[in-house]
Each structure stands twice: as structure tokens, then as C-alpha cells.
Amino acid sequence: MNISYGVCISLMLLSAPIAFAKEHVVSQKGKQFAPEELTISAGDTIVFKNDDDTSHNVFATGEGSKFNLGIQKPATETRHDFTSPGEMTIRCAIHPKMKIKVVVK
Amino acid sequence: MTKLWLTACITAFLSSGTLTATDAKSPDTYEIKLSTHGNNIAFDKIAMDIPLGKKVSVRFVNQASKESEILHNVAILKPGTFDEVIKELQKNGYDIEKMRTHPAIITMTKALAPAHEETLSFTPEKEGDYPFICLMAGHADMLGMKGVFKAKK
């Protein structure tokens, strides 16, 4: 019986890929994203920190990458999980010049 | 002297002051005032009837607070062209000035800072729904800042 359990667990561990999802921090300061380009892995999370003294509204449009994180007040964080590979430009709906290119591998 | 004084007063009264758009209806132009809804990314009206074949003047005011820094614009589209305009806008990286010559856009304002305004005019020749949208990044496509002028006989 113990051998059976051991075999089962071993098979499970070998067959399932082990992935450690990461968190990446993007700062919004001076009405800019920092960094302005970021490459992450599918399953990772980006934490958008508002380090400015004004509100922001992070969003993205495009196939497979459509989201709106809503109005984000200063000194707050909001986060988004990126589950599918692709490239997208993320913007702020209040400050049209703010953008960050994100590549999800 | 009294008549002259009275005439001068009446003339001064008629030529001064600001008539609201709903008051100033000349026989040749149908006037509308359109604004933003406070600091929300939204217009204050989303549907209005307009007369077919008559010149329509739309006075658009960005009423967001100065502290918000939110820019807005308004573009009036030909009926049934919302999707194609949004697609082109996204393809252009939300550069609104690149949209100015798009064939589906009848007329549009520039990007307006809070407390700024611009007046547009157009004449709807066909019956139908003429969308009006804000072209700023995400405002129409993600946040729903849009409405419709319904042209009827």
C-alpha cells in the first residue's frame, strides 16, 4: 500500500509542471509607468502601485487582453493576473501619454 | 432723452449675457449643450432627439475638475460606424488627431482640458442614430463614454 501511494505521488509530481507565479511591481509616478516595458510569464501578476499624487485608471484593450482596473487613488495598489501569452499595451484612461508594453510568455 | 436711454438699455440687455443652448433656438439651427458628468468618464446625456435636415450645433464642455486633469473630446459619427471607428482608434494607439480625417467621423473637437469647451455643427441628412463618443484612450471602448443623437423627421 505504501509503495502504491509513493508511486502515485511520484507520478503526479513528474507529470505536473511546477510553476511559481511571480508578482511584478509597476509604479505609476510622474504620470508614467515604471518600467515602460515588462516581460512576464503566463500566470504572473502585476501589482500597479499609484505612487503619484493624482488618480489613475489602468486598462488594456485588444484580443485576449481586455481589462479595466477602475479609478485608483494615490497611495493604493491594484493588481491583475496575466494568464495567457501575448503582447499588450496597458494605458491610463486619465493620462493618455501613460503606457507600458507588457509581453506575457 | 428717456426714449434714447431706454433704447440703449434694451439693446445692451439683448446683446449681453449668455443664453443657454436650450434658450437660443434660431430658426436655422438646433442647439444642444453637452457636458461631462462631473469627474466620471461619461457624458451628462446619452440620447437626444435632433431634427432631420436641420443644422445642429453641439456645444461641448469638459466639466471635470481642474485637479482631475481628465481630458475629453467628442466625435460625432455616421450611423452604424461605432465599431469601425473604435477599431481604427485602437490601431492608431488612441491618437485622436489621426482620426480627424476618418470617413466615418462627421466632426470632432480637439482634446479638451477641464473647463474648456468647443462647439461643433453638423446637419443630419439621413434618418438614424448618430453616435457621439469620446476618443480619449479607453473612454468609449472600455468605460462607455458614448451616446447617440437620434435624427427624426
Number of helices of chain A: 1
CATH architecture label name of chain B: Sandwich
Put simply, the count of helices of chain B is 2
The most extensive contact between chains is:
A-B, 15 and 17 residues
Quaternary organisation of the protein chains: heterodimer
Tally of individual domains of chain B = 1
CATH topology of chain B: Immunoglobulin-like
Please name the fourth-level CATH homologous superfamily of chain A: Cupredoxins -  blue copper proteins
How far is the N terminus from the C terminus of chain B? 50 Å
**Looking at the structure, what is the overall shape of chain B?**
globular
Provide the gyration radius of chain A in Å.
18 Å
Query: Whole-Å distance between the termini of chain A?
Result: 41 Å
* Strands side by side in the biggest sheet of chain B: 2-8-7-4-5
**Secondary-structure element order of chain A, N to C:** HEEEEEEEEE
What is the level-2 CATH architecture name of chain A?
Sandwich
Q: CATH-wise, what's the superfamily of chain B?
A: Cupredoxins -  blue copper proteins
CATH C-level of chain A: Mainly Beta
Concise account of the structure shown:
The complex is a heterodimer of chains A (105) and B (153). Chain A is mainly beta and 105 residues long.
Q: In words, what does this structure look like?
A:
With 105 residues, chain A is mostly beta strands. In chain A, 13% of the residues lie in helices and 47% in strands. Chain A has a single domain, classed as Immunoglobulin-like, CATH 2.60.40.420. Chain A has one helix and nine strands. In chain A, strand 5 and strand 6 form a beta hairpin. The mean pLDDT of chain A is 88. By secondary structure, chain B is of the alpha/beta class. Chain B has a single domain, classed as Cupredoxins -  blue copper proteins (Immunoglobulin-like, Sandwich), CATH 2.60.40.420. Chain B has two helices and eight strands, in the order H-E-E-E-E-H-E-E-E-E. Chain B has a five-stranded mixed β-sheet with strand order 2-8-7-4-5, with no helix packed on it. A three-stranded mixed β-sheet of chain B has the order 1-3-6, with no helix packed on it. The longest helix of chain B has 14 residues. About 11% of the residues of chain B have low confidence. At the A-B interface, strand 8 of A face loops of B.
